[in-house]
């Protein structure tokens, strides 16, 4: 009991330190040209502070992993909250390793905010320690999930470096296809931020809208009752064939199409709509405030870095992450599937998406060998690759039903 | 066939880009950096680049192209993603027995899109002929790509060229040229360079005028080793269609029952089944489960028998116990290559009906217990004192047929109907009664005997998945080889550094297949150590 409480505190501390570290990293990068400063000295000084904040945060998060593992009796990788928090741990770990190799302050300015977003995203899911259901009771839970998360964490650093490359090299004085797509990527990041903001705000406000659907289901006691859908966020879209039994802050504007089956399909659509809306609003506000493309706002912070170095870091991270991902998300997964179900491969949606990620990065590694694919094109691929990982983690878990669907938002 | 003769006198095979002996680019004018041939096979001739006339050459060349391989990968990737939009047929949640039902399921559940999805065959995507064709094409590409490159690579790696033509050195991304430092000899310089590089883990090849340092050569074999791993993996997958290599059966066994496992000489007995739930005291944290429970284990205690008479047709099975123990999720029972997995359960199913026979005319005197085993109803039960009970008729899943006669829908006792006859007073009195849907219907209006319904016997039926997959060791082995290959290829890098003297100048060049910055650091270290007056030209080779 105490262990779990301690682990919760440690994770909060880690979160706080990552936020601080991100801020200091941003200061290190943007404050270079403040009046009366030596840019190089400024960057080194603040970069070092930010780095050590990240290190202490990482130590706290290691403490979280250890205490939660002891307190819960199993590795903290058994539900969506634990997995996302563990993935975050791996991203920071990968960052620390890559930083030791290249000693480039600016990597932190991109990876740490990514770490903050990921950890904030994990907080959205129920954080209780639940005992393991029979199918998860295997040491492969520890081996398969942790290795897969580590691979994805390293690939995330490849994404961050690729994104930096694009921000560094895409010319911002004219509007091109590249600038537009770069803005789209940044807007998607803001949508994730918007989702986290909305979800954590409304979870506290208790402004629930409850729908009752014209369908029956067995409840926990084995009796039949009408299916209900509970929205924490205000309802834009109502489930098909339903009536409101508890009015929320706003009335739904339209009904979900009837093929969106399952009690939570419409709620997930609603959540997604809110994420897109808040993301777009955040994006619009930032654009109005700065009167510049977001890419152009960030560009000065990566000014003066050798783009080839960024390209190299992205490629190295992916070439290190790829074997780890293969081992964790495919090979160990196959061995466990063989052990649990007697088949190493079953074309379950999650398995298919792990294969898609693997095929995509295989294509990336082959293309790297071709002329003309080093630089911008491969940076775009590292960004798309991470988007596919996010689809695998988020969309497949939450929207597509399958063996890996965890409970949650 | 013409051979290409280089100015150094070496005769090269057709298709060679860089002279095998001196490294000078053949037949091309190198004006800009980007004109310099690709260094991947060090300019060795490759079959696919050399022969293009015959049909077989064209097929070979098509499959040996990395671009084509990437194209195939991308098509597989997109097709796989489309296959997850709606569930595959095997994962449809409700039972759909016939093909029209399957079609209707997709239309009813997903509307127009579902109809299209079904119509295009995406409901069985991963076993469709075109998806399998794509996988086979990828396999072919793997084999041909590897064969096309492995021989030139072998030649390139085992014949490291020492005295390179200047244009070869200049063609490298890392190149520097400068005058000989004052007061130092060539031998001295080479010795110092060799010493520095050896400390960094390089292997040194040298003559009195040239030096080549190399490390991580084995890393170049990584891609081919991982391709071999993948090919073994694919062979393993194909092997499963050989008879006797793969089997997938499902048996339902109720408690106490012994059933034959189809297509094997084995029988399995379900001794007992139990589900355990986590108790609150075991949970690390207080949870609000809203009255629900979390299962802790699904377990069947089973015995596996071998039928010794399996080879004798018509012989009575002679069962010998071969294995005995629990089957739990994640811990299948294993015997030779046969695996039994705990994979389903129907709990609290009707096993037997229990009644108390009473003598209504004698103060409701209890005459004894009647048990009707619903899987094996007894023909006759003797209750003693001259009272016998006969089972006349039994319908496990009762339904009134269209012809007005009772019938059964399935042979599972979901809604049993039993007709029995009671013979009392040593057979001098008979009365018939029927049990159906929880009530007793008697033949006479004023019967002598009555039935009191007692709690029925409830049993658990366990679902066991029986599998055999002899290809699994090969599949694991292939994966293992693949991992070794990718680790070799991606965690290590192949680096080569040349130091040469031409006229009065020192020439230094470096090549690596990845991690240019690592190579750059080592070359910088070398220049610093040997105090060579060199600056490296910055070139991009995108």
TrEMBL record, chain A:
Cytochrome c assembly protein domain: residues covered: 78-195, 308-404
Keywords: Cytochrome c-type biogenesis, Membrane, Transmembrane, Transmembrane helix
Pfam families: Cytochrom_C_asm
Major localization listed first in the record, in broad terms: membrane
Subcellular location: Membrane
Entry membrane topology: Multi-pass membrane protein
Residues passing through the membrane, by range: 6-28, 49-71, 83-99, 106-125, 145-167, 179-198, 272-290, 320-338, 350-367, 379-403
PANTHER family reported for this sequence: CYTOCHROME B_B6 PROTEIN-RELATED, HEME EXPORTER PROTEIN C
Protein name per its UniProtKB record: Cytochrome C biogenesis protein
Automatic annotation (TrEMBL), chain B:
Name of the protein in question: Cytochrome C biogenesis protein
UniProt superkingdom: Bacteria
Alphabetical list of PANTHER family matching this protein: CYTOCHROME C BIOGENESIS PROTEIN CCS1, CHLOROPLASTIC (PTHR31566:SF0)
Annotated transmembrane regions: 68-86, 129-151, 221-239, 474-492
Predominant location: membrane
Source organism: Brevibacillus choshinensis
Keyword Membrane: yes
Pfam family name, one: ResB
Keywords, ordered alphabetically: Cytochrome c-type biogenesis, Membrane, Transmembrane, Transmembrane helix
Membrane topology of this protein: Multi-pass membrane protein
Subcellular localization, as worded in the UniProt entry: Membrane
Sequence ranges assigned to domain ResB-like in this UniProt record: 66-524
Keyword Nucleotide-binding attached: no
